[in-house]
Amino acid sequence: MSKVNTKQIKDVADKSEVIGNKAYENFNKDGKLEAGKLAIAAFKNTLYANSLLIKTEKI
Amino acid sequence: MIKKNKRKWQEEKLPIIMSTGIIRNHTVCKKCNITLCKKNEILYERSYKGVKYSLNMGQCKACHSKTSFCKYKYEDPILNKYSLIEYKRVAKKLHHFRNAETYKARSREFARNAVLNISDDYSRICLLSHPYLDLKRSDITPEMIELHRKQLIVKRKLKKQKL
Fold it and tell me: What is the β-pairing status of strands B51-60 and B22-24?
């Protein structure tokens, strides 16, 4: 676990959060199904990435 | 200010303390309005300048022990035991009958909140119980809670659309 690339994980977390927020705004405006699904997936990715980062910090 | 008032009050009541040793400020119970007597009242021990006295705090014994039923003591211990159980059962039924409206309103509110459950605690519990995240209570940040809340809102809206 010491060779984990934390920068990559951080990038993934930040990018997916930005994408998720945009999709969430679009979903609130239009109410399209695709935008909603994208938002859910993006938020899920950010949560996974954040949990991974916490685990690496502990080790 | 409070200390001065207390001292004044104690000085005024000093002659009563010296004579009887009991101060009765309340004649009626604060909660149930029953007249207080020697059998019913509770006395708290206090001291002023080395002189001990007892104070009536305005609560009857039943209110102090938070019992919602009247108990009758039988001579037979087995009868006494079963009577207590029966008293409690009747008291519970009476209590529910008197406060039925409030209980119904509370349950309605609870059901309404369960549909729109977007509180911090709910999302925190969801994150903690997630099998792949493996998080502890100290790891969860407010940002993560917000993300989870947004996710929930989108999921529920999509469910409504499908229906």
Answer: parallel
Residue B141 Rama label (left phi>0; alpha psi -120 to 50; beta) = beta
pTM summary value:
0.48
pLDDT tens track for A8-57: 889 989 999 999 999 999 999 988 889 999 999 999 999 999 998 888 88
Chain B residues inside the 8 Å CB shell of A37: 158
DSSP B47-79: EETTEEEEEEEEEEHHHHTT--S-----SSHHH
Full domain range(s) for residue B28:
2-64
In eight-state DSSP terms, residue B34 is P
Query: How far apart (Å, rounded) are the C-alpha atoms in residues A4 and B135?
Result: 19
Domain ranges for chain A, please list them.
6-58
Distance CA B139, CA B31 (A): 47
Q: Which of residues 92-151 of B touch A (CB under 8 A)?
A: 127, 132-135, 139, 141, 144, 147-148, 150-151
Give me the pLDDT at residue B45, please: 83
Please report which helix (H) or strand (E) contains residue B126, including its range.
helix B120-128
Across the interface, of B147, B157, B158, the residue whose CB is closest to A43 is: B147
Give me the number of domains chain B comprises: 2
- From chain B, pick out residues whose CB is under 8 angstroms from the CB of A43: 147-148, 150-151
> Does residue B161 sit at the A interface (CB-CB below 8 Å)?
yes
- Report yes or no for ipTM above 0.90: no
